[in-house]
Amino acid sequence: MLRPLQQLIDALRQELQQQGELLARLEEMGPLALQLAGAEAGSPVQSQAADLLAAQQERERLQLQLAWAAGQPGACSFDELIPVLPPNYRPLLSALVEETDSLRCRVSLRLREDLCWLDRACEISHRTLGAIAFPAAAAAQDHLSLRLTA
Fold first, then answer.
1. What CA dihedral angle connects 49, 54, 56 and 62, to 10 degrees?
2. What's the 3-state SS for the chain?
3. According to the model, what pLDDT value does residue 132 have?
4. What are 20-56's pLDDT values in tens digits?
5. 76 φ, ψ to 5°?
């Protein structure tokens, strides 16, 4: 059981590193830069997100493998899995899981902030466009009405 356990620890560290790198990329870019970069195929943010997804999938696979090795194939969560592991590994695994969850929340919060910023920018753009376009459309309609009556 020690080999699957060490593999899971390594996978959690890799996932933690990928989340940290994604957060760093998001922090170094402003919201507009993020939206522009997100639109480009192969952007650093998209590439980092793909790396994070791969790390998460590998960690999930190894987590299930460890659950089987520990004789707990139904243990789907770390809350179920950690208590059946050797006692000297529990603090390390618990700390890695906690840090990974914390960083996942920070990445999620940052992405939500960017979405809120984008929503506000779209709302302001729509209002501005409406203020600019509708008077012009009304003037065009008046001009067309004058031509039809003449």
1. -170
2. CHHHHHHHHHHHHHHHHHHHHHHHHHHHCCHHHHHHHHHCCCCHHHHHHHHHHHHHHHHHHHHHHHHHHCCCCCCCCHHHHHHHCCHHHHHHHHHHHHHHHHHHHHHHHHHHHHHHHHHHHHHHHHHHHHHHHHHHHHHHHHHHHHHHHC
3. 79
4. 999 998 888 766 555 555 555 567 888 898 999 999 9
5. -90, -25
Asked if residue 63 lies in contact with residue 78, where contact means CB atoms within 8 angstroms, the answer is yes
Rg from Cα positions in the chain? 26
Q: What is the C-alpha separation between 72 and 52, in angstroms, rounded?
A: 27
With 0-12 / 13-18 / 19 or more C-beta atoms within 10 angstroms meaning exposed / middle / buried, residue 18 is buried
